[in-house]
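Technical annex, item 7. During the second reporting period the consortium partners agreed on a shared format for inverse folding records so that results from different sites could be compared directly. Each record opens with the tokenized structure and is followed by the designed sequence. A conforming record, contributed by the partner at site C, is shown below for reference.
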């Protein structure tokens, strides 16, 4: 042991996303279903006694002040008043700007893991509230349950969903979230749905899909190709798209046929984040790994 431990930062899919209003501060009220995946990034962390927070492998194009791992670590240190620091390394697999919540999940994992490693003792509600200051998608990763979400994504009702596999397709385009929420053609006043309508299969749309389809031809091409195998959907604000299948073998059969212009992989949906198991491992006195 060299003091490093490895912590999972899973990706998410939005199985449904509807925008039902806009708050006075310009943020949108939405309804969505977050499905956590058994696949994602890995954060490697090591406590430093000198109080410094150091990032070992900066992400291309992301300056330190925008790096969500660093912002999460500094925020926790400031709020909890910890004298300790951390070395942070990230094995990045989740495509950036893909609608899979990569940056948000990395931030949540840093908050949850450093809270353990520093012994700062914040509870889940406090960590989720800190996460919300970093991004609307962070709280679901802190709480670590697939969920029905309302508000800006922070009012969460855990869901137990049937076991499903997913083919996830990356068309290779980064879609920035902010401009999409500002798009004039976005439907932002839809009638609210209910959890039972989602569970019955009657609510599966993503409000961003028509906007992203029209603005990003490669995403439209990915939806069209994957749509040849079943109802393909956009995740979050895109650009990644996905298809739900009953078994991993079915998903793998589709992924194998993916044309070279896209990248495809297969992941399983989980009700509980692998981050929860990592915390339990750590509390049992072992070093988490993923
Ligand atoms: C599209 C989703 O990924 C669905 O899960 C989320 O709603 C977006 O979550 P996120 O990427 O964590 O978003 P943030 O980083 O908080 O916000 C990015 C920008 O999107 C806009 N934004 C975001 C969330 C929201 N409910 N309404 C908004 O209008 C804001 O202009 C904001 O400046
Ligand atoms: N650790 C990080 N991982 C990814 N992106 C980061 C990170 N830190 C900062 N960023 C910035 O955040 C932006 C959004 O990245 P992210 O991969 O979270 O997008 P996304 O999956 O589309 O998000 P969401 O689904 O939450 O809208 C990136 O383009 C990058 O500039």
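Designed sequence (site C submission):
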């Amino acid at each position: 042991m060299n003091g490093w431990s490895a912590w999972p930062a899973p990706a998410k899919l939005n199985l449904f996303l509807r925008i039902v209003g806009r708050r006075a501060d310009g943020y949108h009220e939405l309804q969505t279903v977050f499905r956590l995946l058994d696949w994602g990034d890995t954060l490697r962390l090591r406590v430093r006694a000198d109080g410094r927070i150091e990032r070992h492998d900066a992400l291309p194009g992301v300056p330190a002040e925008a790096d969500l791992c660093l912002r999460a670590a500094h925020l926790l240190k400031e709020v909890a008043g910890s004298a300790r620091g951390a070395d942070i390394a990230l094995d990045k697999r989740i495509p950036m700007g893909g609608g899979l919540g990569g940056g948000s999940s990395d931030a949540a994992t840093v908050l949850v893991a450093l809270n353990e490693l520093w012994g700062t003792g914040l509870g889940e509600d406090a960590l989720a509230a800190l996460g919300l200051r970093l991004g609307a998608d962070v709280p679901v990763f802190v709480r670590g349950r697939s969920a029905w979400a309302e508000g800006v994504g922070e009012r969460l009702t855990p869901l137990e969903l049937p076991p499903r596999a997913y083919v996830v397709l990356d068309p290779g385009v980064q879609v920035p979230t902010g401009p999409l929420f500002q798009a004039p053609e976005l439907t932002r006043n839809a009638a609210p749905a209910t959890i039972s309508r989602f569970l019955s299969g009657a609510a599966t749309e993503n409000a961003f899909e028509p906007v992203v389809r029209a603005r990003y031809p490669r995403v439209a091409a990915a939806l069209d190709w994957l749509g040849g195998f079943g109802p393909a959907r956009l995740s979050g604000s895109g650009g990644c798209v996905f298809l739900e299948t009953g078994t991993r073998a079915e998903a793998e059969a589709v992924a194998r046929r993916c044309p070279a212009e896209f990248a495809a992989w297969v992941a399983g949906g989980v009700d509980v984040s692998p981050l929860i198991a990592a915390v339990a491992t750590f509390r049992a006195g072992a070093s988490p790994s993923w």
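The first helix runs from residue 68 to 80. The pocket of CDM (ligand 1) is lined by residues 14, 17, 27-28, 30, 32, 104, 135-137, 152-153, 177-178, 181, 236-237 (CB under 6 Å). All partners now use this format for quarterly exchanges.
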